[in-house]
Design brief:
Layout lengths: L8 H6 L3 H9 L3 H7 L10 H4 L8 H16 L7 E6 L5 E2 L17 H13 L4 E6 L8 H11 L5 E5 L5 H10 L3 E3 L7 H7 E3 L5 H5 L1 H8 L3 E5 L7 H18 L4 E5 L18 H14 L4 E3 L4
Parallel strand pairs: 1-3, 3-4, 4-5, 5-7, 7-8, 8-9
Antiparallel strand pairs: 2-6
Helix pairs in contact: 5-13, 6-7, 7-8, 8-11
């Protein structure tokens, strides 16, 4: 899909004033929250209210409405997928990540044969959807490497997704032709100042290149595009607003692709990195319900990692 040069998400993103949005979210009166939940249909304009502290008193009602929408659109179906970690090599330094270049860990990249063997194990367990995962290491996880693996795994899996380094539209298109149908790419954080603080060195420091990757994937014809942020790096309410803005944009401009929304939450595992803004269970539920209400047809992905 061709778009005008200035008609992209980054131009929309730049128009948002974070402090204004934050104030709007935190000053929603309780009466407005009550009225909002009486609606039969929700839009992006309801996001500030649904993510507000005032809505915290109505989580049960939010959950009930979300439940009914989920059953109406998806029935009792839950789709399972399994990740195959191609490599833990990474040339970027990020404060929160175990793959970070500065971590002194044993690095391994699977051969094509090893990846296929992993895939066969998952296939025998009943999985038909697989996600190929790696660190930010395009010199090791090359196009040819990925295409060779995808061609082999297509013999076993109905759907092959990738969660690797951001690519150009041309590179995504090559993988689509090979058999990849889905992309997962978290922005990590939508706040540029936090992004800069968390991503120290490497290609991943390029905020704009990463932010525009889902659009490049849409132009390449990927059937599903997954976006998300890491809950815990910044204010989850503000991040939720940006994620909703991003999802809303992609749905309007790349309607041929199904949009998937992920809500991965950081949990404390070591003393090396302290989570700046821990997210409580109740807040994760509020965020999940808000996205179901506003985006009834979106895929909502929950990870067990």
């Amino acid at each position: 899909m061709l778009m005008k040069k200035n008609n992209n998400f980054f131009s929309v993103f730049q128009k948002v004033i974070p402090d204004t949005v934050r104030q709007q979210i935190h000053t929603i009166p309780e009466q407005k929250a009550e009225v909002c939940l009486q609606k039969k249909r929700f839009t992006f304009q309801d996001i500030p209210t649904l993510l507000s502290p005032a809505m915290g008193k109505h989580i049960v009602k939010m959950a009930r409405k979300s439940y009914l929408i989920t059953r109406q659109r998806f029935g009792n179906v839950i789709q399972l997928y399994a990740p195959v970690y191609l490599s833990n090599e990474c040339f970027s330094t990020c404060k929160y990540c175990g793959f970070s270049f500065d971590n002194k860990i044993h690095r391994v990249t699977l051969s094509t044969e090893e990846v296929v063997n992993e895939g066969i194990v998952l296939y025998k367990q009943g999985f038909r959807h697989v996600l190929l995962v790696s660190g930010d290491a395009s010199k090791i996880i090359t196009q040819q490497y990925l295409k060779t693996i995808v061609k082999e795994l297509k013999k076993y899996f109905h759907s092959i997704s990738i969660e690797v380094h951001p690519m150009s539209s041309e590179e995504y298109a090559e993988l689509v032709d090979t058999g990849v149908d889905s992309l997962t790419l978290y922005q990590e954080t939508y706040l540029p100042e936090v992004y800069k603080e968390m991503h120290i060195k490497g290609k991943k420091t390029d905020f704009k290149w990463r932010l525009e990757a889902p659009e490049r994937a849409g132009r390449a014809g990927l059937r599903r595009i997954g976006i998300g942020f890491l809950l815990g790096l910044a204010d989850w309410r503000l991040e939720g607003y940006y994620l909703a803005l991003h999802a809303n944009y992609l749905m309007k401009h790349f309607w041929q692709s199904q949009i998937s929304i992920s809500l991965p939450r950081l949990c404390q595992t070591s003393k090396k990195f302290q989570i700046p803004h821990p997210v409580k269970d109740i807040h994760l539920v509020q965020l999940l319900c808000a996205f179901r209400l506003v985006f009834p047809d979106a895929i909502l992905t929950l990870s067990t990692r």
